[in-house]
Amino acid sequence: MRTAIFLSLLLASVYKVSAVENTSPFLAWSPQEFTVNTDLNTQVISVQDLQTGVFDLVDCSHKAILVVDEPELHVSDLGQKGRERLKEQVHGAVSSLQIPFVDGAIDLESLAEHLARKCHTSFINANPVQDIADLMEGPSVVYKTLSSASVAEKDHILENLIRAIRNKFQDDFLVLYSSSQTKNFSTKHRLSARQLPDEPTKKQTGVFHQYTFFSQGIFMGLIIAVIVVPIAFIGIFWNLSVQAPQRFEKKQN
To answer: Would you say residue 203 has pLDDT above 50?
Structure first.
C-alpha cells in the first residue's frame, strides 16, 4: 500500500511539472486600450488557440505592431534579474495581456506577416537593421528577433525599438512578445525549469515573479494523498470486511 501511494505521488508530480516544460510565455501590451477575448484570459493555451485569439485581438486600429521573438524564452526567465525594463513596459501599459504557458513554439514571423496582410500595412523585418525609424513610412508591422545577446542587451534593444516607434507614431502601437522556440533544459536544471506558479507573501500579478515547484495546490494535494486517502482506504476496507453472523441464538422466554 505504501508503495502504491508513493508511485501515485511520483506520477502526479511528473505529470504536473512536465505539463509546463515545453512552453513559452506570451505578452501583449499597448499604451492604448484594447479588448481581450475571453479565450485569452487563461494561464495555459495552445498555439492554435493563441493565434486565433491574437487575430481577434489585433483590430488594425494601431499604426504600428511590434512582434518580438526571443528564442528559448521560458516563463521562469521573466522573474530573473535584468528584466526590469520589460517589466516596466508591461506594467506601465494602459492595456496588457500575460499568458504564462503557451503549449509549444509560435511562428512569430509568419504571425507578423499574416497581421500585415490583415491590416493592409507594410511588413518590416528589423533583424538585419538596428534603426527602423526610416523604414516606417506608414502603418507597419515590425518583426524583431532578440538572440545572441545578454538579458540586459535584449531589454535595451527592445527599449530602443519602442522609442523609435513612439517618435514616429506616439502611443499608437501594440507590442506582441513571445518565443518561436521552446527552451531545452539539461537534466540537472529540468526540475527548476518545470516550476509552477506559487502564491507569494506579497500579492504579485503576472509573469514577472519567481516560480517555485511546491505551490499551495500541490501541497494540499500531497496532504490529501498522504493522510486522507489512507484513512479512507482503511475505513472502506474495514467496512467491507464486516461479516454478518451465520448463527443466531435461540430466543429465550
So the answer is: no
State pTM to two decimals.
0.69
The whole-number average pLDDT for the span 54-78 is: 90
C-alpha cell at 55: 487575430
Amino acid letter for position 145: T
* E strand or H helix at 2: helix 2-18
How far apart, in whole angstroms, are the C-alpha atoms of residue 65 and residue 117?
Answer: 12
| pLDDT, the chain, mean | 78
In the prediction, which pLDDT does 5 show? 45
Rounded CA-CA distance 146/162 in Å is 14
More confident position, 49 or 229: 49
Alpha carbon distances (Å) from 251 to 71, 82, 244, 248: 86, 87, 18, 9
List, as one string, the DSSP characters of 47-104.
HHHHHHHHHHH--S-SSEEEEEE-TT--GGGGGSTT-HHHHHHHHTSSEEEEEEEEES
For residue 14, give the C-alpha cell: 511528473
The DSSP element (H or E) to which 24 belongs, if any, is strand 23-30
- Averaging pLDDT over each range in 111-120, 183-192, 221-230, which range is the top one? 111-120
Residue found by looking up cell 540586459 in the block: 152
What string of DSSP letters covers 94-132? SEEEEEEEEES---HHHHHHHHHHHHT-EEEE-SS-S--
Q: What is the dihedral of CA 72, 75, 79, 81, to 10 degrees?
A: 10
Cα angle 152-148-75, degrees, rounded to a multiple of 5: 60
| Predicted local confidence at residue 66, as pLDDT | 93
In this structure, the dihedral spanned by the alpha carbons of residues 38, 43, 48 and 54, taken in order and rounded to 10 degrees, is 50
User: In this predicted structure, what is the pLDDT of residue 113?
Assistant: 94
